[in-house]
Write a structure and sequence with these properties.
Elements: H1 3-12, H2 14-26, H3 33-46, H4 52-76, H5 79-87, H6 93-105, H7 109-113, H8 119-129, H9 134-158, H10 163-173, H11 175-205, H12 211-220, E1 225-228, H13 232-237, E2 246-247, E3 266-269, H14 276-287, E4 293-295, H15 299-305
Parallel strand pairs: 1-2, 1-3, 3-4
Organism: Silvimonas terrae
InterPro entries: DedA_domain, Rhodanese-like_dom, Rhodanese-like_dom_sf, VTT_dom
GO molecular function, one term: transferase activity
């Protein structure tokens, strides 16, 4: 297939293609929107066309894609993050990094999130789950979408003179080289999917304790050690906690030895997709010898969604 024909086709349908690709990319699908913006930016300069339409198409498409997940975050809370992380092939670390950005930068975090894989997909639903107002999100997100589109279209315009050189090199290499490059990209994505599935299987195979069982244990006086393994930023964004919980983040879980006894049950919880952080903490504690460690199914959200009455035997809040 002629590369010039493909580029001509791309140029002819540049506006709808730019809108569609940015829309589905911002909606969470692993579609390479940024390279497309660079390419159409270069083509628009090379053909003498104005790039204003492309800028508008990319901005509107990106903003609408983000809005879908913002609405989902407002309606479903943090539960929607488990879906977006699966679709975007991003690990739970994307949620923790987004929380850090939100705490440090507020609305400006949406600008940074546009350029960081994983975080870019998680930021809109997280903003919704945290209760951002419509006006605040629209204001910051439209500005961030405009800036993101402008950067990549601008890069394409800046390097438009090199477009013919790239085409000449690809023509010399032949279609085989192009297809080989595509195959390598597919292999890379397949490898990420396989690693994610393995991690998901390990997480699913980890036994958990339900909210009802944990409450029963607290009422019966079994007095399990409860550990909140959320990051400091996550606790700042949502200061709620379980009765008597210690606050020890995942990266500090090795220090938990000073508060743990071999004859006590240990319950770890987070507010993350699929309890990933809590599962990781439980696995680490089990390797350290505390085999009676379980993650709380559903984490912090499940505990408060259960709307349980106050404990008849209140647990003294823990300190760290």
């Amino acid at each position: 297939m002629d590369l010039h024909f493909l580029l001509g086709l791309t140029q002819h349908y540049a506006l709808p293609l730019t809108f569609l690709v940015t829309l589905v990319s911002r909606a969470g699908l692993p579609v390479p929107a940024s390279p497309l913006l660079v390419m159409v930016g270069a083509l628009s300069i090379a053909s003498g066309e104005l790039a204003l339409g492309l800028l508008l198409a990319a901005t509107v498409g990106g903003a609408l894609g983000d809005m879908v997940w913002f609405i989902a975050g407002r309606r479903l809370g943090r539960r929607v993050l488990s879906v977006i992380c699966k679709v975007s092939l991003s690990a739970d670390v994307c949620v923790r990094q987004s929380e850090t950005l939100f705490v440090k930068w507020g609305g400006l975090s949406l600008f940074a999130a546009k350029f960081v894989p994983g975080i870019s997909a998680v930021a809109p639903p997280l903003a919704g789950a945290l209760g951002w107002s419509w006006f605040s999100f629209l204001k910051w997100n439209i500005a961030a979408s405009l800036f993101w589109a402008l950067v990549f279209l601008g890069l394409g315009a800046l390097f438009s003179n090199e477009l013919d050189l790239v085409l000449a090199v690809l023509a010399q290499l032949g279609e085989g080289a192009v297809w080989s490059l595509g195959a390598l990209v597919i292999i890379y994505l397949a490898g990420r999917v396989i690693r994610r599935r393995r991690a998901a299987e390990q997480s699913e195979n980890m036994p958990r304790i339900s909210v009802a069982q944990l409450r029963a244990d607290l009422e019966s006086g079994r007095d399990p050690v409860i550990i909140d393994v959320r990051s400091a930023e996550g606790r700042m964004l949502d200061p709620r906690t379980l009765p008597g919980a210690y606050t020890i983040s995942l990266k500090e879980i090795g220090t938990a030895a000073s508060i743990l006894l071999p004859d006590r049950d240990i319950i770890v919880y987070c507010s993350c997709p699929n309890d990933v952080t809590a599962v990781a903490a439980a696995q680490q504690l089990r390797r350290m010898g505390w085999t009676r460690t379980l993650p709380l199914a559903g984490g912090l959200e499940a505990w408060f969604e259960a709307e349980l009455p106050p404990l008849m035997h209140p647990v003294t809040p823990a300190t760290t």
